[in-house]
Every structure is written in structure tokens, then in C-alpha cells.
Specification:
homodimer, alpha/beta, five-stranded parallel sheet, five-stranded mixed sheet, 9 helices, disordered N terminus
């Protein structure tokens, strides 16, 4: 009986990008796949409302790190995917943002493929493009710039990516993910290139009710980030387009006045 | 009576990114906004199935260019937005991909704002990140690269963006949008830097049933694009990560054999 049942199972790994935070920023395709999942392995940054799309009888496991709680290693997650796909069929890996943008989704697919498990990818909104947009900042703007560059602040070795020094020399809007703890280092790179008046923004918990944003220039952003209490996870947006934010002009005038005041 | 009615109208412009093609790749938030729209102004690259979410009584106008038919200028679109928002309230601008990634969405918002019309942005999946993902190509991969760079192939002046020469010197995965007609120019930039073995892919009509893909290196891609008949609109993906495509290895061996054969 058990054997006959197993024969009918078609193991499938579906990687879904949940988007930047707001549960309504998942795709329709993502919702449809969630509603057919037998098992969902979800990351800590995924909004819990998304689990409402999953059948009640399905298995839901938090595999990501949440403050204080233990998490699964990447190797353990890989093994869970294979185990559950073989046992139950449709396994969904639900990841924040997009699974292929600094998401390690490829590693999970490669592992599962070794065990003959088919896969599909349902892309999600990456925070790098969607969070600036939600704040009224267009990463590309005709007549201002012709490209944008997305860099990780934290590489495999834990260091700041050396690509950031190159990016700082280009005209591209630069978005740094996972770079909050490297902010001072990033600022000093831009300052050393004489770009201390370049606009910069930090966005924490983007698209969620507890969203925080700090706006300024390379000169003023450090103080502004402290004042607003912007922590992790946050994205950093660097470039002239940041001045499109509705509060930017007001903010920079306020910061100028504060600096002048503190000098006197 | 008419006056009282107009008083109740709250003009609102909602910019929605429809995603790369497949109508299921729009966000849930986008669907909800479409279902409340009084007027939808949509681009030619938007899938017509998305109009099924719009109430039957609402106005739907194609404002983008479709082969052979006349299109509205950007100025005419701006004026339509203001006119309809004042008359009917909720106006949706439905654009392919993401409205803030080479989408000119910002210009429409700026124009409407001048007339006191509020706005909101609902980001969409940009083809630059989502189409490679759907083909199994992860734009960033641990141990391979630490960034990706998205550049337009066609600037305001009609020329290839000079950012591409810079990007070609970086380790970033480079994605060129609207660059199909500049392919030879792009190849020659990479070849001049000695990167003739770098993997490259072109994807046309990504995420749709008529999707086409060409895979190769800087040396072989031109012939492969011809053989596959890859036209516009297409995106170009350049970088080592392109070899993650399931067909890549097979393709490059086949191309090598063909080249050797034609030499003999």
C-alpha cells in the first residue's frame, strides 16, 4: 500500500521568491504554487501571512534564522528538500526577495538535481529594485543615468565586495544588499573619490509597517542613520536618483541647518 | 449633480509593473489595484489576460506601440493620465517589467504630481532578473560573482550606453536591456578586452510560450542568434553564470564541433 503510494509521487522542488516583505508583493504564480505545496520550507524574512495560501494539512517548517532561535545549516536544508520531495512530492522553498539574487537558491537546486529531483523557479521581487520604487526612487531615470548595479556588502569571506570600489567609479545607481554593517567603509570609499555630496539612502524593513528610511549625502548619512535608528536588514541606495525621494530636499536643508548650527 | 459627483473623486495614479510577460508573474498587489481601476492605460508588451482583472465597465486603452499601429507619445500619455484621473479617480498605468527600470514611470508621476494627482507605485518583476532565473541562470552565485549590473543598450540619444565598456571590465554579471540591435557592438567591446570565451545568452519573449534562447560565447553567439532567429525584444545576459543553463555545455560542444567541421 505504502509502496503504491510512493510510486505516484513526483518529487518537485519549487523555489519561490516571496518579495521584499509585504505579503501582497508575491506573484500570482507564487500563490498558485503555494496552494499546491505538500511541504513548505520558509526563511525567517518571509511574511507569515503567506503560509495562509498553503493547505492546512501540509507541512510548514521555518528553516531560517530568527533572533535567538536555532537555524538549519545550508546542508541540513538541502537534505530536508530531498527527503521531503521523495516522500511527499511538491516541496516549496520560500525565500525572501528573489531566490537567485544573493539567495543561494542555485545551491539548493544543484543539490536536489543530484538526487534526480526536478525543479522550477518562480522569481520574486528583489528588494534591490522594489524597495527604492516603493519609496518613489527610480533606479534608472532618462537623462540622469543609464544603468544600476547591485552588489553584496557581505561576501563569502565576510568582507566588503571589492566590486564596490569599481561601482563607486561608475555612473550607475549602486544598490548594496546586506551592507548595513559596512556603511562606514562604503562612505569612506566614496569620499576618497571626492563624491561626498552624492545622495544616499538606507531602507530597513522595506514595504512593511515598521519601515524606516534615512536620506542624506555621504557627508550626512551616518548621523541620519543613527538618528533614525536604521538597523539590519537594510538596503543601501547610492546615486543622484536618490534625490527623487519626496523628503530628500527637505532632509538635506534640515541637515545643512543642523550642521551650521552646531558650528556656531 | 455632476459637480457633487466630481467632489467625491480622489484622483490617483497607480503605476503597476506587469512583469516580464507571463500574466501570472504580476504581483497580488497589482491584481488588487487592477480590480479597482476606473481607467487602465496599458503598454503593448503587457499580456492582455491581465485586463480580465479590470472591471468590465472600466476604460481600457492601449497606449503603447504594437507592430503597425499608431501609438501615443509620452506627452499624450501624460495628458491622458491627468484627464482621466480628474474625471474618474483611479487611473492605472500598466507597464511591462518594472515601471522604474528603464520604464519612464518617473516622468509620468512627475507630470501628474504637477496637477496635484497623488500616486503609488506597485513594482513588477524586471525582465533583467526574472528571465535569467526562469532559465535556471542565477545572476549571482556564491564563489562566482558578487554583483550584477543592468545597463540599457539604447540610451536617449540612441547610442549604446558607455556604461557597457565599464561593465565589461568588472566581474559583475551584466544584463543589457533593449540591446539586441547593438549585439555586434557589445561583442566587439568584450573581444577587445580579451574576453572572447565569456558565456553570453539572449532571451526573446521570455516567460511566454514563444520564448527563444540563444547560448554561446562571445565567439559563437552571433551565429547562434541567427540560427535560432532571436529578434527583439530580447535581453542579453553576460557572465560566467550563464554556463549554469542546463543546455549550455551541450550547446558549446555542438558549436565547437560545427566550427571544427567547417574548418575541414
Amino acid at each position: 500500500m505504502m509502496k503504491a503510494n510512493n510510486k505516484n509521487i513526483s518529487p518537485l522542488l519549487t523555489l519561490i521568491g516571496a518579495g521584499p516583505g509585504d505579503p501582497d508583493l508575491i506573484t500570482v504564480k507564487g500563490v498558485k504554487a503555494l496552494s499546491k505545496a505538500k511541504v513548505v520550507l520558509y526563511d525567517a524574512l518571509v511574511h507569515l501571512d503567506l503560509l495562509n495560501y498553503v493547505p492546512e494539512t501540509s507541512i510548514k517548517i521555518l528553516v531560517g534564522k530568527r533572533a535567538g532561535s536555532l537555524s538549519y545549516t545550508q546542508d541540513e536544508i538541502n537534505k530536508l528538500i530531498v527527503k521531503y520531495a521523495k516522500k511527499y512530492g511538491r516541496v516549496v522553498r520560500l525565500k525572501g526577495g528573489d531566490p537567485f539574487i544573493f539567495g543561494r537558491g542555485k545551491e539548493e537546486i544543484d543539490y536536489a538535481t543530484k538526487f534526480g529531483i526536478k525543479n522550477e523557479v518562480i522569481p520574486g521581487l528583489t528588494s534591490s529594485t522594489s524597495l527604492p520604487a516603493l519609496q518613489g526612487i527610480s533606479l534608472t531615470t532618462r537623462g540622469v543615468n543609464e544603468s544600476f548595479w547591485v552588489v553584496t556588502g557581505t561576501t563569502q569571506s565576510g568582507l566588503l565586495s571589492s566590486d564596490i570600489s569599481l561601482a563607486a567609479r561608475s555612473t550607475a545607481t549602486v544598490v548594496v544588499l546586506m551592507g548595513r554593517n559596512k556603511l562606514l567603509e562604503i562612505i569612506s570609499i566614496y569620499k576618497s573619490l571626492g563624491r561626498e555630496n552624492l545622495p544616499i539612502a538606507l531602507i530597513q524593513n522595506g514595504s512593511l509597517p515598521n519601515e524606516k528610511i534615512a536620506l542624506g549625502t555621504m557627508k550626512t548619512i551616518e548621523e541620519e542613520v543613527c538618528r533614525k535608528g536604521v538597523g539590519t536588514p537594510a538596503i543601501i541606495v547610492i546615486g543622484e536618483v536618490v534625490n527623487q525621494h519626496p523628503d530628500y530636499l527637505f532632509k538635506t536643508i534640515e541637515q545643512k541647518l543642523l550642521q551650521d548650527y552646531s558650528k556656531n
